[in-house]
Write a structure and sequence with these properties.
mainly alpha; two-stranded antiparallel ribbon; 6 strands
Length: 227
């Protein structure tokens, strides 16, 4: 489908790639800031040990739980999303002069790579959501002490780092992890839409090629023999 010489589906795909590119920053930066604020500790899947009615001990989760969103956000969303967005943008520019370029573009390899990106982002989203829920459940639990009624209240929390007299402030952890979680699920939806869009385009290209070949055969059939 074209409008004023532009292939609408290609334009939509390009916008989706750049949208996922922006989402990559929203995934990786907030979780990175939270990790820095916690002096390198990962709050996802953290457990809470009660010290007394006033103090609690936060046992950080494994760092890999926070590394996954960083890697997925940077490599899957930012680098790959930007690369594919620029590639499609160049194809749109070239198609203004030669509309035949778009039907000749590869489709199936990008369906596969986008499906892999969707799967990785989905796993990343699950890791963030489950880890975030476990942290908030631990902070709002009533056993043996109820420190916070809502998870967001724990943003006032200050940690005393083990073995040192240094403190770490967690003043933004709830808001930032929530941003990372939301952006990750939205980005997952973006990759799924790209897979669906690519599959539709692949089927349309096959139908166009089949129609073109049958038309060519009909033209050959109606030519009368000259001998």
């Amino acid at each position: 489908m074209t409008v004023s010489g532009l292939h609408v589906q290609l334009v939509v795909n390009t916008l989706l790639y750049f949208f996922n590119f922006v989402c990559g920053f929203a995934i990786s930066i907030p979780i990175g800031v939270v990790t820095i604020e916690a002096s390198g500790g990962c709050l996802l899947y953290s457990t809470i040990t009660s010290f007394n009615s006033t103090f609690l001990i936060v046992n950080f989760g494994q760092k890999v739980n926070c590394n996954v969103p960083n890697y997925v956000g940077v490599f899957v969303c930012i680098f790959y999303g930007l690369g594919m967005g620029m590639y499609n943008l160049y194809a749109i520019y070239k198609s203004r002069k030669d509309p035949c370029i778009v039907p000749q573009m590869w489709v199936l390899p990008f369906i596969v790579t986008n499906a892999i990106a969707a799967f990785k982002t989905f796993i990343c989203s699950c890791i963030i959501s489950v880890g975030f829920k476990e942290l908030c459940d631990a902070l709002t639990s009533e056993k043996p002490y109820k420190y916070f009624s809502r998870c967001s209240q724990a943003q006032k929390l200050k940690l005393i780092l083990p073995g040192t007299e240094k403190t770490a402030s967690l003043k933004h952890f709830y808001d930032y992890i929530n941003v990372t979680q939301t952006a990750s699920w939205i980005c997952t939806l973006g990759w799924i839409l790209l897979v669906v869009s690519g599959s539709i385009r692949f089927l349309l290209n096959r139908r166009l090629r089949a129609g073109g070949s049958s038309t060519a055969q009909d033209r050959i059939a109606i030519i009368e023999p000259t001998a």
